[in-house]
TrEMBL record:
Superkingdom assignment: Bacteria
Domain Rubrerythrin diiron-binding, residue spans: 18-154
Localization terms from the record: Endomembrane system
Membrane topology: Multi-pass membrane protein
Name assigned to this protein: Rubrerythrin
Spans traversing the lipid bilayer: 274-292, 304-323
Transcription regulation recorded as keyword: no
InterPro entries: Ccc1_fam, Ferritin-like, Ferritin-like_SF, Rr_diiron-bd_dom, UCP035918_rubreryth/DUF125
GO terms under biological process: intracellular manganese ion homeostasis
GO molecular function: manganese ion transmembrane transporter activity; metal ion binding; oxidoreductase activity
Amino acid sequence: MFSALATRRRFSELSEREVLALAISSEEDDARIYRSFAERLRADYPASAAVFDGMAAEEDGHRQALIERHRARFGEVIPLIRREHVAGFYARKPMWLSANLSLDAIRAEAEDMERTAGAFYVRAAKSTSDAATRKLLGDLAAAEARHERHAENLTEDNLGGAAKTEEDASAHRQFVLTWVQPGLAGLMDGSVSTLAPIFATAFATQDTHTTLLVGLAASVGAGISMGFTEAAHDDGVISGRGSPLKRGLASGVMTALGGLGHALPYLIPDFWTATAIAMVIVFVELWAIAWIQNRYMETPFFRAVLQVVVGGALVFAAGALIGGG
């Protein structure tokens, strides 16, 4: 590792030829990243893919201009120097990470790429005394500064109001299917199904330690079960519900949290204090579920309250009656 770091040079130590070579490789990398974004989005968001195709084409134009300037100044052989060869220089995320980025995250990443590229050309222009090279680098700095506006123009050409609305709706739907729906199912299962065993144990034993152990076992066990079930029963290929790993994670974590919410108050030694706090948390959990159903699943709020709160109250009553019987 020390050897690798020792071979890196600071930007201030680069020659004009090396700065040009760095700019050429950087433009090549950025064009490749934009094309990877386009490929990632093409199936689900074709209009946004066209935007990134256009941005990649502009980066190709920058690279050609830089190559022509290098040819005029230094000849045909371009030194191999990349961002990772320069100490403290900005780096791009690996392209394979784009497979895990949402549409909005990809747009934000592209904005950051434009901003850092513009800052690079401003700095690079200051490092050369050749008038033509300085002009080219300054022009590229200005071009990168306008790149956000260029992207807006591409968006206007390729991503009109109707297309953008449709893509945003599709992205929202995918978010709901992949994260909200399984997470909500897990939260409902964890919050409601653990009510009976936890409060039955609480009222039967009136022992906070025993109740806590039962609550932990029920919550963690339910989380593991729901997570595996969600991940295993649908690979998302036909249903379009997204990655089974993401859905399983959302379902498992929210199931465990739903049960732990009213199990952890039994860390308090006093039984009635712990039970009162647990009941308040149950009330908050059930209302949160109703709100999520109304917000993301478009369930009428009154119906959501009726389904969740009444159902939860019945399960709680069953647990209390069984435990107190």
